[in-house]
TrEMBL record:
Keywords: Membrane, Signal, Transmembrane, Transmembrane helix. It is found in: Mitochondrion inner membrane. The lineage of its organism: Eukaryota, Viridiplantae, Streptophyta, Embryophyta, Tracheophyta. Exerts its effect at some terminal stage of cytochrome c oxidase synthesis, probably by being involved in the insertion of the copper B into subunit I. This is Putative Cytochrome c oxidase assembly protein COX11, mitochondrial. Residues 1-16 form the signal peptide.
Length: 177
């Protein structure tokens, strides 16, 4: 009975791992996950009222990975974009199911360097939402983001001109009943 309880607990923990990790990262900022205080809309409106302008250009590079056992091809559509703090930008990732069965996946993300993640705000993103792809299906997924103008005036950001937005897709185990 004890062994059966341990096995059931381990199976349950594996199903809960991605959502629990997501909540942990969002709550603590661990792994470069962006924490939310003020909404992006509130930040944009505040900086527009204050007339904040930026001169510094930031290069945002994109990275894409899939977890072991995930038969998807997952790539950024562009390698990088250049954006000034206070500006928003749009980027795309492409996912393709290379298996012969439908697969549902979910992605997590992080921003590096970690200390810059607080200034990186996603307005629209596919992360943490389940994506179901049929065999051979390919989709483009947008990421609309904004870099807070306070990035430019923070002394801890001096010398940081490159950010990396990295996504990893994980396979979602589905009930076969």
């Amino acid at each position: 009975m004890y062994l059966l309880a341990v096995v059931a607990t381990m199976v349950g923990a594996s199903y809960a791992a991605v959502p629990l990790y997501r909540r942990f990262c969002q709550a603590t900022g661990y792994g470069g996950t962006v924490q939310r205080r003020e909404s992006v809309e509130e930040k944009i409106a505040r900086h527009a009222r204050e007339g904040t302008t930026a001169s510094r250009e930031i290069v945002v590079q994109f990275n894409a990975d899939v977890a072991d056992g995930m038969p998807w091809k997952f790539t950024p559509t562009q390698r990088e974009v250049r954006v000034k703090p206070g500006e928003s930008a749009l980027a795309f990732y492409t996912a393709e199911n290379r298996s012969s069965t439908p697969i549902t996946g979910v992605s997590t993300y992080n921003v590096t360097p970690m200390k810059a993640a607080v200034y990186f705000n996603k307005i629209q993103c596919f992360c943490f939402e389940e994506q179901r792809l049929l065999p051979g299906e390919q989709i483009d997924m947008p990421v609309f983001f904004y870099i807070d103008p306070e990035f430019e005036t923070d002394p801890k950001m001096v010398g940081i001109n490159n950010l990396i937005l990295s996504y990893t897709f994980f396979k979602v185990n589905e009930d076969q009943s």
